């Protein structure tokens, strides 16, 4: 499996890591040449981060690390003592941890964090440190580095924090930089800038181990790609080959999951709008104007995609449309009738017409209840509405005891989202991410809504599961004739599902168009910028 | 293959120790509950029967832990005291949790005015040391077991109220609560099924630890002569009686003190365990 | 007359630990024993009393008592100077007694000692006449106590209750609450009572410090580790240990006055019935209980008066005894025949419950709480439910005034049998005095009034004997033990004496170096 | 700058609120006491109905409740705490004498507890054997203060005669402050260590290690600051614990101090003293809490006003 190009910087053979007997990394072998970029991709939990951390001796508490060969530039790292590791870290191998939000100490200035590597390896005298830090920050594209270095992480945007983190890793001028999911938490546009920065470093001769779960992200940068699954590397080869002629079925699956299908054919939806949002404004108590004069319409059976960068007001709009948040101005109509203007008491009998699916399935399911109870609760509101129908299973028409019929109804709901009845007795934390989101969808559908509002329903999920859930939603749309307001920051996802797309920025809808038109001829400058930043496979 | 780095897992070692400790704590608590319910199971003597002829026997012989000044068996008095000490701790905590929950939910869900009223009151109560609050309550109600119980409950209540409120505010904004609202569930079922249980469960874990504190507080009040009254064999009261004899009959003050310590340690071990488990699951 | 000043060791400092701290240090105001104990060295009295009850001149060189016992005329010494420089004269004495009875003084005890006080008359510069509205025999003895000690007419500066200016061998120095009171030697003292050990001259000690150490263990530890030279209120449980300690000497002085006993409310509740009172008393094995709780240090008591009090009636001894069968008979006879599930006797469905309210302070003193628990257990066997509620001082007083109690315990030291008047005379029902047994019997009243109005020894003896006998026959009291003032001092301490009430006196104390 | 002003204004408002609340609480408590307040003032002394009426008039007990309340607040605002019923002296004086010994005790105890906690926590956080240390701490904080005091007293003072009892000499401060410090220190150690261990598991620590920082540097430069936050948060609790401990320790060791004065006042229902202690505690709380807020700002830049 291993390709061994001449003169490699790092050679790993048969690396295994286990935690209390649980194997996280299982016999991984690869090598990296100077100035090369090796990408490590794979689904969540496949062992990417553990592999990366094992390379600097920080595999984690309780980790047992074994390797047949672990050589950095001719030096065997096996048997390194803590002091040896310390000398190597930051100086020869730099590591950028997965989450820039928590990887910087919130109580220390950015400057102090970046300087840590300089101090630890005595690379700058006391007087030189400040200058070097500014230089480093400038080099990774932080504007005004002399001011920024006195700031604390919370005063920096996500992109700047990620840059500061990279600056800290580069302080010791390591030959190898390991970047663990450097762009996951970021907007597409910021993502692109970070990837550019890494490309620069590689061009300057730094070898790069780039880790991501997203094939599209690594496609831009990687010379070679290693695909990991369940602790093993299932495929390793030059980037072009892996992307165009994947050999392993898992790689093919990963590639297939990357949403690239053409936008849906334009359909027209006659009749009056199901949901109309009219000139809605919302300002929060702290003065944030989250929504300003937003207008949208969703027709029955239509999927309206809503995109926009983080903080543009998408979730706020969803909450207003759901009647969870009262707008300051404008109004929301449901089927031509007042909706946002109603009191909660008046709205309650109508609530079954609108369902919701949130981003994080775990936090949208009460952790204390079983699946059966969660769905049963939703069913119960329907039973109150349609008492006769509920007791009668579809096939037989026979009237059953309440409890029995409830069990059957729950099983039916689960079946609709492709889950077996055996899950009914589990609690949310006993389910996988995909299963959880399916349960959340089943619950939303149990009340038979005509409109489903989905706020980033797939962004917490792995690519492969993402595709399954999207398929499910589309199928349900076709079967049940659901209308959807579909929110995502991921243009590829939006493109795959939407009939029409609305683009939000800073609380305003800047453009609304049919999906095909929007992706072919974006009119608004912001939309164009968004589209350009999207990473693409090959 | 050779080991590159093998870090010793301190946590693993702890888990073993934790298991042993937990088993010990569970055993102690089990015995305590048994002693509280059927004290007769552990001793043949009466806790209040006086026999001056047997006064101040040292430990050993027929009297495992010796006898007190009126010839009462110390072991028996401690066994019978279990009920009083545990009862004070549990009842005071239950009272504090119940009151704190009502106040906290009122503050979190009852609108601005209720929130202000409840929280400002809680602020004032939290500003005063628990012991001082307890003493004020006793100034009002006079000494006695009932007042000691209420005094401890009052001094712990504001803390619980504040916790419940904070938690309820978080839970109220949780997506699963929004989801329940969107389903069209009536307000009271949203509160009863989702907000209350999820706000309460972390509190119940903390209440276990609170019970330990309450037992200590109860025995302190008895020691000061403000709580359970002799001849009731409450542990703090036994200690108060025994301290006269520190120099001459050490067993009078030693064993009740040990009983308190062992009980509170056991309660704390269990409480911590529950907390770890709870927080572990949430994380 | 003053003797020659004895040689004193320079810088001699003596510290003595007390178990209680009085809330007020002014003996005119306070009722506390500790106040009298501390101020005995600071204030002098008109007369002094010796251990056998004899009365001697002190600030008064001599006195005359009118036939009707209503007027006492004192001839004062002319050479006495208060610590603030004021001279002792008749006006000063008058000012003192007037102050005691003034409402603003809020006297708790000294006014009671003055009884039916009418006024004082300045006869001449050094002659004062104290007049009463009724014959009042106990006055001289009362005048010998520190409570009626003569303070400077100028009075102290600063807060009341904190400092006292007298003419005694010690000058009030400083006071730190919850910590200590310090007295200094009065070098110009010449007018001590003739009987006093120093022969009337100044004290030996330079400073005398009273420390307040309420915890028994702490107080004992302070003595055995040498941090203080002496302690009061040695707990009976430690007597044996202290006796074995070669560095310590134990001084025991039986108190005069009323013994420690439980009084039964004979005017309401179940104890209105004399049979129930007798049954209650017979159910208690006082001998065994006192021996156990006090390790044989205290003697059991038979009468209200302690054996060393003048006119103690020895014939009451062994006139009653522990007899559970007799108790049962009496209870059956009185109709309390049934028993309930807990084993308490009942009559007509009502349980035989008696209430004995107490305060925390009362209970923690001198093992009284333990003793009460012993009584509780003993009478339980006879079928009484004895309920001890812990109440606060004010409440207790309210209960006593309203008569809503069945039992009340106390002891009272005073070296005069007139104390019986307080306990048994109807004019002293709790509103005004300490007749907590609520005895209201004209015959008893006449004995006690008569005794107070006559100077005739025999008449007094027989009247007091009858009263003591009556109290025992009617079982209005269960006398428990005879309190003993237990003081322990370091072996080296010499010259410690005690006053008739049993309290230590320090004017003769010497610390040989 | 306005941010800072707003912050200070907030502190002052909170202080005023807590003090007013404490005063009101004390007033309400006084009204709740069953029976006649005049009776309680007289205490155990015999008194006629006239005396009682005079006292009522003197104390304003015969006025309407609202007026009593306002007068009471006005008196407190003037700093007039009234006279103790029991001791018949101005309350301010009575408390004034007792503050210093309690402060001495508290300062020594906190010092001991903090020093011990810092030492033990930093040395044991995340290391082997901390299970045993943790058990010892658990036992320490589960031990009743009064019992610990008695045991120490009987061993060191009585048996071994090493340390004096009562107060006066500085040496007599050793055992009481130790008694008070043991449970306090044990709790602080646990909180501190938990904070340290939590901080040591944070990604920023891994980042620091990945830059080549040493273990000790990480402990001191990163983790300790984070661990201080929960400690500082605890100071309110610490204060409460100190007071409760002082009541018991002063009783057991027969020391002068506020704790014992309070206890005596409670037993004797000496309201003016109880009220004064309540106000004093509230004041101390307010001051300490403001200091805590300042400490937060120093430790955590995220909380600083923009
Ligand atoms: N400190 C640890 N203790 C125990 N198990 C661990 C530890 N760190 C990681 N694991 C386990 O090792 C496996 C691999 O984890 P790793 O973090 O490498 O996944 P990943 O591929 O980086 O996933 P993601 O894309 O979610 O970051 C997972 O099952 C994880 O639960
Ligand atoms: N409860 C709130 N109080 C104050 N400001 C809020 C609140 N909720 C949201 N905001 C602010 O309103 C703006 C819009 O937030 P919103 O959550 O709608 O964004 P979003 O488009 O959903 O972003 P994301 O993609 O990150 O989910 C943001 O600036 C946010 O900080
Ligand atoms: Mg990872
Ligand atoms: Mg959002």
Automatic annotation (TrEMBL), chain A:
PROSITE patterns: ABC_TRANSPORTER_1, ABC_TRANSPORTER_2. It comes from the Bacteria. GO terms for molecular function: ATP binding. Keywords: ATP-binding, Nucleotide-binding, Transport. Residues 10-255, 275-531 form the ABC transporter domain. Gene3D superfamilies: P-loop containing nucleotide triphosphate hydrolases (3.40.50.300). PANTHER family: D,D-DIPEPTIDE TRANSPORT ATP-BINDING PROTEIN DDPF-RELATED, TRANSPORT ATP-BINDING PROTEIN. Belongs to the ABC transporter superfamily. This is Dipeptide ABC transporter ATP-binding protein.
TrEMBL record, chain B:
Pfam families: BPD_transp_1. The chain crosses the membrane at residues 20-41, 86-109, 121-141, 147-164, 203-228, 248-271. It is a multi-pass membrane protein. It is found in: Cell membrane. Signal peptide: none annotated. Its main location: membrane. It comes from the Bacteria. Keywords: Cell membrane, Membrane, Transmembrane, Transmembrane helix, Transport. Residues 82-271 form the ABC transmembrane type-1 domain. The keyword Repeat does not apply. Belongs to the binding-protein-dependent transport system permease family. This is ABC transporter permease.
From TrEMBL, chain D:
The chain crosses the membrane at residues 12-33, 103-126, 138-161, 228-253, 273-299. The keyword Signal does not apply. It is a multi-pass membrane protein. PROSITE patterns: ABC_TM1. Keywords: Cell membrane, Membrane, Transmembrane, Transmembrane helix, Transport. Residues 99-292 form the ABC transmembrane type-1 domain. It is found in: Cell membrane. Belongs to the binding-protein-dependent transport system permease family. This is ABC transporter permease. It comes from Nonomuraea insulae. The lineage of its organism: Bacteria, Bacillati, Actinomycetota, Actinomycetes, Streptosporangiales.
């Amino acid at each position: 499996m291993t390709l061994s190009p001449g003169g490699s910087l790092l050679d790993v053979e048969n690396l295994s890591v286990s935690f209390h007997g649980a194997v996280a990394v299982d016999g991984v072998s690869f090598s990296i040449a100077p100035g090369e970029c090796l990408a490590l991709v794979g689904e969540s939990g496949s062992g990417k981060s553990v592999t990366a951390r094992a390379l600097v001796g920080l595999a984690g508490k309780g980790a047992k690390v074994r390797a047949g060969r672990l050589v950095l530039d001719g030096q065997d790292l096996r048997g390194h003592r803590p002091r040896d590791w310390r000398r190597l870290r930051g100086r020869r191998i730099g590591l950028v941890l997965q989450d820039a939000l928590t990887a910087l100490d919130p109580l220390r200035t950015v400057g102090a964090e970046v300087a840590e590597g300089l101090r630890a390896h005595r690379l700058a005298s006391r007087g030189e440190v400040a200058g070097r830090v500014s230089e480093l920050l400038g080099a990774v594209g932080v504007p005004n580095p002399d001011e920024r270095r006195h700031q604390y992480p919370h005063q920096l945007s996500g992109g700047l924090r990620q840059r500061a983190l990279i600056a800290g890793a580069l302080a010791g001028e390591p030959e190898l930089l390991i970047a663990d999911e450097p762009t996951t938490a970021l907007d597409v546009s910021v993502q692109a800038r970070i990837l550019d920065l890494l490309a620069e470093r590689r061009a300057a001769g730094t070898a790069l181990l780039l880790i991501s779960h997203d094939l599209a992200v690594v496609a831009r940068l990687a010379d070679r790609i290693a695909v990991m699954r369940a602790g093993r590397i299932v495929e390793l080869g030059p980037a072009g080959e892996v992307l165009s002629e994947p050999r392993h079925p898992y790689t093919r699956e990963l590639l297939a999951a990357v949403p690239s299908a053409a936008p849906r054919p334009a359909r027209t939806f006659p009749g009056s709008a199901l949901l109309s949002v009219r000139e809605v404004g919302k300002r929060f108590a702290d003065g944030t104007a989250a929504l300003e004069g937003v207008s949208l319409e969703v027709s029955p059976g239509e999927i309206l995609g809503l995109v926009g960068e983080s903080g543009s007001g998408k979730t706020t709009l969803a909450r207003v449309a759901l009647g969870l948040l009262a707008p300051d101005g404008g109004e929301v109509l449901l089927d031509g009738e007042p909706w946002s203007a109603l009191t909660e008491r008046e709205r309650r009998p109508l609530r079954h017409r609108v369902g919701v699916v949130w981003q994080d399935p775990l936090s949208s399911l009460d952790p204390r209840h079983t699946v059966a109870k969660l769905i049963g609760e939703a069913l119960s509101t329907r039973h109150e509405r349609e008492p006769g129908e509920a007791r009668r299973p579809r096939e037989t028409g026979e009237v059953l005891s309440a409890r029995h019929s409830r069990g059957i109804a729950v099983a039916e709901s689960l079946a609709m989202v492709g889950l077996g009845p055996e899950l009914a007795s589990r609690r949310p934390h006993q389910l996988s991410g995909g299963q959880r989101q399916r349960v959340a969808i089943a619950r939303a559908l149990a009340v038979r809504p005509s409109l489903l509002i989905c706020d980033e329903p797939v962004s917490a999920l792995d690519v492969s599961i993402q595709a399954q859930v999207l398929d499910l939603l589309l199928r349900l749309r076709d079967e049940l004739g659901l209308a959807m307001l579909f929110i995502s920051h991921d243009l590829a996802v939006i493109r795959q599902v939407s009939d029409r797309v609305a683009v939000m920025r800073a609380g305003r809808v800047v453009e609304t168009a049919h999906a095909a038109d929007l992706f072919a001829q974006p009119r608004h400058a912001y939309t164009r910028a968004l589209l350009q930043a999207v990473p693409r496979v090959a | 293959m050779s080991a590159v780095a093998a870090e010793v897992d301190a946590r693993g070692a702890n888990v073993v120790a934790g298991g042993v400790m937990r088993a010990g704590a569970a055993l102690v608590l089990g015995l305590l509950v048994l002693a509280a319910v059927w004290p007769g199971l552990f001793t043949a003597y009466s806790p209040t029967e006086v026999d001056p002829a047997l006064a101040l026997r040292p430990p050993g012989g027929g009297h495992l832990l010796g006898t007190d000044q009126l010839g009462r068996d110390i072991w028996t008095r401690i066994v019978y005291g279990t009920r009083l000490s545990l009862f004070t701790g549990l009842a005071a905590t239950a009272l504090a949790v119940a009151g704190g929950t009502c106040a906290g939910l009122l503050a979190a869900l009852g609108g601005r005015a209720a929130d202000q009223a409840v929280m400002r009151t809680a602020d004032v109560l939290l500003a005063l040391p628990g012991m001082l609050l307890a003493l004020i309550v006793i100034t009002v109600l006079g000494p006695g077991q009932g007042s000691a119980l209420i005094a401890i409950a009052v001094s712990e209540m504001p803390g619980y109220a504040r916790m419940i409120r904070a938690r309820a505010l978080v839970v109220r904004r949780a997506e699963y609560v929004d989801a329940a609202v969107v389903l069209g569930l009536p307000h009271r079922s949203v509160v009863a099924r989702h907000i209350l249980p999820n706000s309460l469960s972390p509190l119940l874990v903390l209440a276990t630890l609170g019970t330990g504190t309450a037992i200590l507080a109860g025995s302190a009040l008895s020691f000061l002569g403000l709580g359970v009254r002799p001849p009731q064999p409450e542990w703090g009261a036994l200690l108060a009686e025994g301290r006269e004899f520190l120099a001459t009959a050490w067993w009078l003050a030693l064993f009740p003190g040990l009983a308190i310590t062992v009980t509170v340690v056991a309660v704390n071990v269990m409480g911590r365990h529950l907390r770890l488990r709870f927080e572990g699951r949430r994380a | 007359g003053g003797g020659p000043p004895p040689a004193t060791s320079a810088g001699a400092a003596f510290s003595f630990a007390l178990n209680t701290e009085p809330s007020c240090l002014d003996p005119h105001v306070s009722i506390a024993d500790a106040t009298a104990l501390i101020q005995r060295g600071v204030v002098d009295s008109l007369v002094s009393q010796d251990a056998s009850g004899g009365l001697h001149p002190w600030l008064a060189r001599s006195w005359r008592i009118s036939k009707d016992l209503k007027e006492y005329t004192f001839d004062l010494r002319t050479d006495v100077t208060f610590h603030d420089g004021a001279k002792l004269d008749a006006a000063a004495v008058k000012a003192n007694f007037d102050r005691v009875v003034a409402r603003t003084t809020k006297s708790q005890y000294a006014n009671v000692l003055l009884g039916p006080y009418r006024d004082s008359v300045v006869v001449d510069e050094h002659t004062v006449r104290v007049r009463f509205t009724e014959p009042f025999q106990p006055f001289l003895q009362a005048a010998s106590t520190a409570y009626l000690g003569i303070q400077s007419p100028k009075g102290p500066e600063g807060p009341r209750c904190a400092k006292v200016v007298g003419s005694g061998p010690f000058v009030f120095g400083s006071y730190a609450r919850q910590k200590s009171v310090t007295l200094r030697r009065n070098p110009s003292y010449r007018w001590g009572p003739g009987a006093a050990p120093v022969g009337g001259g100044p004290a030996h000690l330079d400073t005398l410090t009273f420390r307040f150490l309420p915890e028994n263990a702490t107080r004992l530890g302070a003595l055995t580790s040498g941090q203080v030279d002496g302690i009061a209120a040695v707990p009976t449980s430690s007597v044996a240990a202290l006796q074995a300690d070669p560095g310590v000497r134990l001084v025991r002085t039986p108190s005069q006055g009323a013994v420690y006993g439980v009084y039964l409310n004979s005017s309401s509740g179940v104890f209105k019935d004399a049979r129930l009172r007798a049954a209650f008393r017979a159910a208690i094995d006082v001998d065994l209980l006192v021996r156990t709780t006090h390790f044989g240090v205290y003697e059991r008591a038979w009468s209200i008066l302690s054996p060393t009090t003048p006119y103690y009636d020895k014939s009451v001894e062994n006139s009653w005894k522990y007899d559970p069968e007799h108790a049962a008979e009496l209870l059956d006879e009185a109709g309390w025949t049934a028993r309930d599930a807990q084993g308490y006797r009942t009559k007509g469905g009502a349980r035989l419950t008696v209430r004995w309210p107490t305060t925390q302070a009362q209970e923690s003193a001198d093992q009284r709480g333990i003793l009460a628990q012993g009584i509780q257990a003993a009478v339980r066997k006879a079928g009484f439910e004895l309920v001890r509620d812990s109440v606060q001082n004010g409440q207790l007083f309210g209960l006593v005034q309203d008569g809503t109690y069945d039992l009340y315990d106390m002891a009272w030291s005073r070296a005069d049998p007139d104390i019986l008047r307080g306990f048994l005379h109807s004019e002293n029902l709790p509103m005004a005095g300490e007749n907590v047994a609520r005895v209201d019997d004209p015959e008893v009243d006449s004995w006690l009034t008569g005794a107070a109005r006559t100077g005739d020894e025999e008449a007094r003896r027989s009247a007091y004997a009858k009263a003591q006998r009556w109290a025992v026959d009617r079982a209005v009291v269960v006398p428990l033990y005879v309190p003993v003032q237990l003081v322990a001092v370091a072996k080296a301490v010499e010259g410690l004496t005690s006053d008739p009430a049993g309290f230590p006196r320090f004017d003769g104390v010497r610390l040989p170096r | 700058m306005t941010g800072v002003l707003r912050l200070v204004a907030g502190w002052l408002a909170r202080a005023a609120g807590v003090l007013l609340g404490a005063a009101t609480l004390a007033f309400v408590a006084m009204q709740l006491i069953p029976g006649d307040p005049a009776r309680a003032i007289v205490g155990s002394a015999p008194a006629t109905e006239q005396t009682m009426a005079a006292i009522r008039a003197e104390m304003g007990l015969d006025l309407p409740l609202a007026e009593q309340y306002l007068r009471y607040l006005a008196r407190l605002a003037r700093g007039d705490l009234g006279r103790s019923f029991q001791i018949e002296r101005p309350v301010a004086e009575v408390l004034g004498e007792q503050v210093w010994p309690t402060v001495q005790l508290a300062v020594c105890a906190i010092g001991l507890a903090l020093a011990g906690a810092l030492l033990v926590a930093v040395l044991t956080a995340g290391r082997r054997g901390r299970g045993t240390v943790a058990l010892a701490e658990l036992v320490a904080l589960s031990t009743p203060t009064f019992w610990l005091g008695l045991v120490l007293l009987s061993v060191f003072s009585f048996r071994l005669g090493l340390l004096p009892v009562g107060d006066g000499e500085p040496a007599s401060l050793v055992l009481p402050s130790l008694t008070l410090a043991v449970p306090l220190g044990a709790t602080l150690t646990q909180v501190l260590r938990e904070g340290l261990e939590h901080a040591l598991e944070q990604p920023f620590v891994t980042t620091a290690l990945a830059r080549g920082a040493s273990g000790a540097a990480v402990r001191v430069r990163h983790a300790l600051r984070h661990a201080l936050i929960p400690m500082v948060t605890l100071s309110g609790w610490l204060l409460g614990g100190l007071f409760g401990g002082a009541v018991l320790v002063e009783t057991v060791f027969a020391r002068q101090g506020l704790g014992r004065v309070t206890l005596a006042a409670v037993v004797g229902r000496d309201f003016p003293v109880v009220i004064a202690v309540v106000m004093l505690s509230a004041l101390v709380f307010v001051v300490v809490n403001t200091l805590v807020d300042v400490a937060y700002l120093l430790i955590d830049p995220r909380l600083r006003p923009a």
